[in-house]
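User: Round two. Same drill as before: sequence, then structure, for each protein.

Assistant: Same drill it is. First protein:
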Amino acid sequence: MQLVTRKLRQIKTWLVFGGSFKLRPHEMRCLDEWRTTMTNEGIRLLDTQLSWLDRYKRFSQDAVIRFYSTSIANGGQLPTEIRFPLREDESRVATVYLTMHGAEEISVKGRIVLTQGELLAIEFNKSPRNFKTLKILSARVETHLNPMMSITEESKIVNTKILDSLLGRTARFACDLTAALPLSKRTAIIEALGASLPSEYLKWIEVVDGFTIGKLKIYGLKDIWSAPRPDGLFYVFAAVQGEADLAVKGGEGNGKIYWLGYESSAARVLDADLTGMIIRYGQ
């Protein structure tokens, strides 16, 4: 009876929200490779989560798969006792490198993402729509963050003198300052991200992990979030209140800033740099 009830719930959910109820081989392989790096308790938490996360949606030409549960209301979280101790908004904990073979060999990277201690997504660096006919030849995994450990700040003090030198006269308007993460954590998060961040942003986060200045909100490294769109996968690192998110695009290595307007479906390249954005919106 429980199985029938669950199937009926899945069908109802699919009719309302769409998605699928089956993982593809390359997606399963990413999870299997990540599992090999875990402790017994980590494996238990992952397998328990996967028993709950039974609906999947794919975005950006299937380059992003996100995990959902038909047992939890939309937007709800898994029970606390089955979530990993690493409970940041988005954490890219591991990258799996797959080598696949069809007419020719193809290499692809899949980044595993957690949110608040639960499995959120796998982000691939290219569209895997033609992977169904390919055979996986080899796989290896590189871990970035331990899901069984929380990120803690080594210092609660923001060096405002250095911040003043970076932001200039507008620094006095900055608020909601968060202390910078330890170097090892910054390095791990940056390396796991599927895009290059602007050089100005990288200088700022050496001193402060996020701040607000006027209408401009600069997110800390641990608060960067992914935004799958029809024109690609973007990583949002800042926002202009009421107007747009600022992001970099996955797969690009130039730190180019994109304006993701709240009233526009198309992303556009921003002409101004972050200093120019602070001058415009920071007072």
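Second protein:
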Amino acid sequence: MVGTEKKKEFVMKLRDYTIENVARTDEDVVDGTIVDMVFFKITKNPGKTPDKEVFEKLAREEFPHWFDGHEHSYLETGGDVGDQEQAMAIMALGKLLGVWNLLTPAALDIPKALQERMAGMGMISIIFKED
């Protein structure tokens, strides 16, 4: 039981950190400050300055497998975190901070309906990028 409580505490820290530091936006993606997650767009919360090292430490403590160099979809990360929407916000913040690369149909020059269909099949993923 203690291990479960500790795991829950780490998840909440990462989730809380993300909630505090991101915001949804309807702005166009033009300069790397907005991430298009197909279903919604994420930017850093105005007035907040999330720290790459803090974010990465929180994520590594709970989800070290996200840093193994393999692709991890929002379906998987959603299962890890317990909520797919929150997982996508975490994925977006990690991308904004330069922690990992983000693979998303929004980066492809294809119709929005096809982007949504592909994303619905789990085709939004992160891959850790080493410096």
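The first helix runs from residue 2 to 21.

User: Perfect.
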